[in-house]
Design goal:
single chain; mainly alpha; two-stranded antiparallel sheet; 3% strand; globular
Amino acid sequence: MMLTIYLVLLLGIPSGVVVTALGALGHPSLMWGLVLLGWWAITRLQLPVSIGRTPISQPVRVAFVVFLVVVLLSFTAAMLRGQPDDQESPAVTALVRMLSWAGVLFVAIDGIRTVHSLARMARRIVIGAGLLAALGLAQFLTGSPLVDFFGSIPGLTAEGGLGERAGIVRSSGTAIHPLEYATALNAALPLVIAAALSRGFRSRQSGGNLAWWLPVCLIAVSALVSVSRSAIIGLALAVILMIPAVPARYRTIVIGAGVGVAFATFALMPGLLSTTVKLFSGAATDPSTQSRTNALERVPEFMSTSPVVGSGFGIFLPRYYIFDNQWVLIAIEVGILGLLAFAAFFVAGIWSALQSRRSTTPDVRLLGHALALSLFTIAILFAFFDGLSFPIAGGMLFLLAGLCGSVRAIVAAEAVSDVSPSARETPGVPVET
């Protein structure tokens, strides 16, 4: 229930909505992440000491703690150097946001201890992503944000709105930016496809296979009408890399249906196909592409003052330069050590999810494969924008990474237990998804 509340706050409330009195720290998902961190810490302190039981190692947690330590070192060094007043507040906000994500990560790793709980959490992410895609398509068709009523609620402040490219509305759902929206959907897409493929991911009360293919179609159409290279690249990655998970007898049908959805989308929306083709054919001369490419030449300049631990996490403001690349921003703000630790975090999460191959349960293997692809997709999309600056993109990263860790724990428990998969448990926080 605790993680489900976080998911609802993350996807259901626009990322530009904050409690006015708290400013940048006032997004509900951020505050709930801090609650999760406190709940996790209290629960861990109350756990009885296990005698003769070897704890399951969690590389994803170790990698995150290392990254967090580097972030703290970078923050401390930056404060000791002295910073302008307008940079101290963003740095503190970034640090608090990281602690909030730590709560999400730790609860997901230690709180999900059974295959049933893992599948249930995955199913809720699928439903959330499907609803988010449906909202984005409604925005595209109506030209209205549809969620701007949050700004009229007393005590709340709302930012954001819909943008356009080539005269086409760029949907953003509840995200503050179309790339944040695309990242959330494409990161969830492998899980959505996995849910459609396997009945084990669905509750007994849920519909048949066709009903679970609907979110897949909604996300695919949302990516195609987004007028975004990043969204289409993320869609292609998720779909192509999930094809091996599709049973051979269904691959032709699934691929054919995908082509049919794309053809119908372009046929029903005149001008969309030509605009999409121009996005890629004119990429070399596109201002946004040139900006990202030219920005790489200035990276050594900004790293030169502190190449090891960086200039300070959250301190490099847009007024200095806009890189639109989270990996580059990590290198500048947290230095070479931070970049290596951040990369190790992704590698550890993907490796943990792929441990599902050792499982004897087909659903666990499929879910592990999907989670590994979700994390890989985020890693690629973070090269196109500063994802950790956006609540939904960052929140999805740490939630999915936590689920990757839970896969490793479940598979490890399965290897040493003769209990049925739905009842296997590993020591940790009470099962509350």
